[in-house]
Each structure stands twice: as structure tokens, then as C-alpha cells.
Amino acid sequence: MNATPGESALKARKKGFMAGDLGPMGMFFRGFLKHPVMVGSIIPSSNKLIDKMLGPVDWANTKLFVEYGPGVGTFCGHVLERMAPDATLISIDTNPDFITYLRRKIADSRFLAVEGSAADVCEIIASQGFDHADYVLSGLPFSTLPPGVGPTIAAETAAALRPGGAFLVYQFNPKCRSFMAPHFPRIDHEMEWWNVPPAQLYWAWKD
């Protein structure tokens, strides 16, 4: 018996769901459920947080921008809009669902989605032909990462950044500052109240 149009549509929706063909909110929620300790919030960041976080970046002198934990790409489009035509954005995530989603979603030759760990950032950028990153952005939930991972990421990020570059971190728990302080003597801090939940914003500079 041939399927009715309604049955065919239902099957297509189920197939799309199983294949990961969800909208950004659906993918974000699914990622949170599968890997709650690696996703900082159940809701993507607000535009106000994004604009404030990226405000101090010297885009004219940015050739490599790295992001940890891009999720569904909430920041990616905003970074790409600001980057120079010859710059590169490398987004690193341990969740293969997010990486697959980003590779399908973002058609920009300057963008590279890498499945891997932020703790391996030096190795990852070297594999793409770069000596250093100009800026590194992270929304990883440092307070819930396995023991030792947060300090390792902070140390490796400091090693990966050029002098004058910065580690941009947005969090909902201030614990991350203790990981960054040994490697970044100058850390600027603000709050973004127009976000759910309100977020701690840090700019750790490699002077």
C-alpha cells in the first residue's frame, strides 16, 4: 500500500530528526541532553552578550580566530561578519553532532570546524599551518569540566596565543578566573545581565 502524503511527511520528519537535521534550538537542546557537562547553558547566548564579548577584538589584525565549544554556531556568523577576507575561524568541539551540523550550516571558505579537544589547541592550529592564534573564544563550562582539564586548557591557550592576543571567556560561574590567572596577569571582567542566565565575561590578555 502506498503511503498517504501525511504519512510520507511524517516519515521525512523522523528521518531528518534521526539524521540530525534539526533547527539550531533543537540541536542545542539535544547537545545539552547528551553532553550536559560540556554545554554551558540550555539556551544560546544573546546578541548583547555576543556584541560585548567581541567588542575589544582588533579585527584588522586578526588572521586566526579560534573558538572552543561553538555548539550550533551562535558566535560563528558574528565572527565571520567581522573578520577580514583572508582571516580564518577554527571552531573546535568534542561533540561530533555539532561539528557535522556546522559543516552543513556554514558555507564560508574561511571557516573550519574541527572535532577535537580545546586542550589540543596548539596541535590543531599547527596542523592548519598556523604558528599562533590572535584570539581564542570559549563558552566551555569550566566549573563542570573533569578535574585538570580547565587548567590544561588555560595553559594551552596561553601558549597558542600571540603577544597582544586575548582569551575571551563567557561563563555563568566565576571559577574559570582561577584557571586563567596563572597564565594571564591582566584579566578584564564585566557582567552581561541581558542574557539568560546573566553571564560573566572575561578578556584575558597575553601582554
Summary, kept brief:
With 207 residues, the protein is α/β, with parallel strands linked by helices. The chain contains eight helices and seven strands. Strands 3-2-1-4-5-7-6 form a seven-stranded mixed β-sheet, sandwiched between helices.
Description of the structure:
The protein is α/β, with parallel strands linked by helices and 207 residues long. It has one domain (5-205): Rossmann fold, CATH 3.40.50. Helix content is 36%, strand content 23%. It contains 8 helices and 7 strands; from the N terminus they run αααβαβαβαβαβαββ. It has helices at 5-18, 24-34, 47-54, 76-82, 96-105, 121-127, 149-160, 176-180; strands at 64-68, 88-93, 111-115, 133-138, 161-171, 186-192, 199-205. Strands 3-2-1-4-5-7-6 form a 7-stranded mixed beta sheet, with helices on both faces. β1 (64-68), α4 and β2 (88-93) form a beta-alpha-beta unit. It is globular and about 35 Å long. The model is unreliable at 3-20 and 35-42 (pLDDT under 50).
Mean pLDDT: 84
Based on the coordinates given, report the CATH architecture: 3-Layer(aba) Sandwich
Strand content: 15-25%
**Which stretches are low in confidence, meaning pLDDT under 50 for 5 or more residues running?**
3-20, 35-42
- Which strand order spans the largest sheet, edge to edge or round the barrel? 3-2-1-4-5-7-6
DSSP summary: helix tally: 8
